[in-house]
Amino acid sequence: MATLGELERSIMERLWATDDTLSAYDLQEALADRKLASTTILTVLSRLENKGFVTRSRDARPHRYSAAASREEHMADLMHEVLGGASDRTAVLERFVGQVSPEEAETLRRLLGS
Amino acid sequence: MIAPLALAVLAVALAWPVPLLLSRASWPARSPAAALVLWQAIAIAGGLSMIGALLTFGLAPFGPDLLTATVNLVTGEVDRIESWNALALCGAALLTAHLLLNLVLTIVRSERQRRRHEQLVRLLSSPMESGARLLDSPAPVAYCLPGALSSITVVSAGLVELLDDSEMLAVIEHEKAHVTQRHDVVLVAFRAWYASLPWFPIAFRAQREVGMLVEMLADDTARRAVPDGVLARAIVLVGAGQDRPLAEPGAAEWGGEASITEVGARLSRLGVAPLPRPAEALVVAAAVLLLAVPTVLLLSPVAAALL
């Protein structure tokens, strides 16, 4: 039995993979190997909707769901938070480039004697 | 009138010269745990003596010590109060409220950001065998999200590519130390201190020093799992220095913008012996003394009588 978090992730993966909107039934079919009850899928979808990751279209029955933003957009947000926001600390400090190419890494390893 | 004066002198000393000296000292790198205790004692004793000086000055006409004076003030035993004393009492109340409010605000804001970040990470990463989560990003980063109930260590695909297995172990052990030792709690307190008193030149320095000490503590935990050389390589390769436990956006990662000073300090201390036990005990004793002095000056009627 997968955890709720893993279930959320697999449903998001399905929604990110398509440009179309999906119904809970579509998702149940796509994740058929997991043998999920449709109520479970609806629960996870409403959790994702509450968190703002999924938008629901109520025009048709059954309701259709789509991802609020693409995977790439979310990833960019996340990396911006991780890499960017330390402005309060770094403003007066010297900056150091954090990205090291594999060749530079080799040189550094040699210098450090390994 | 000696208690308010003594507290005021202590408050000034703890607001500027003492933290300045500590931030310039070289021994904290040899005993980050003891230095961290001392920094916390300075912050708490500083706040206590600042508020205490105002409070004892304001209450002086009402009685010889804090307790009697408060009782007299509440029961209306003294019906006249000098404007200077009233001003001091207002100042004490405002300062206390300001500090507490900033602490609560900083905690709430950090927690909200942390939760949002955790939701994103859970959707965008997959679990690894080590218990960490793998983020599908080419930028080499590692960081942790410590929480009251659950904590997550995140490493990126770019970092896995960059580091060999032992270097990766060093990074994971380092992050685990942040989580198990709850470094985020110390950091959020010092961030709140800086948020409350941004015009204090020393508050920024304190926050930076504490951040660095926390890295060194985590490094020491990693050194129990890997040889120093491996840890040194990991530090250099990811240009580390900013893998704070994430509480504010970007407060935490290996990679990103790290400062040469931080990387240098973390590397150079690997070759230096830790502080001897007696010296460490002396630092902790100094911290306890720092906390005891304003507490005794504030609370003890005996001390007030003696003064």
Order of helices and strands of chain A: HEHHEEHHH
The radius of gyration computed from the alpha-carbon positions of chain A, rounded to a whole number of angstroms, is 21 Å
Structural class of chain B: alpha+beta
Number of discrete domains of chain A? 1
Strand order of the largest sheet of chain A: 1-3-2
What's the alpha carbon Rg of chain B, rounded to whole Å? Answer: 23 Å
CATH architecture of chain A: Orthogonal Bundle
Poorly predicted runs of chain A are 86-99
Provide key terms for this protein.
heterodimer, A: 114 residues, Arc Repressor Mutant, subunit A, three-stranded antiparallel beta sheet, 6 helices, 3 strands, B: 307 residues, alpha+beta, four-stranded mixed beta sheet, two-stranded antiparallel ribbon, 13 helices, 6 strands, 68% helix, elongated
Brief synopsis:
The complex is a heterodimer of chains A (114) and B (307). Chain A is built from six helices and three strands, in the order H-E-H-H-E-E-H-H-H.
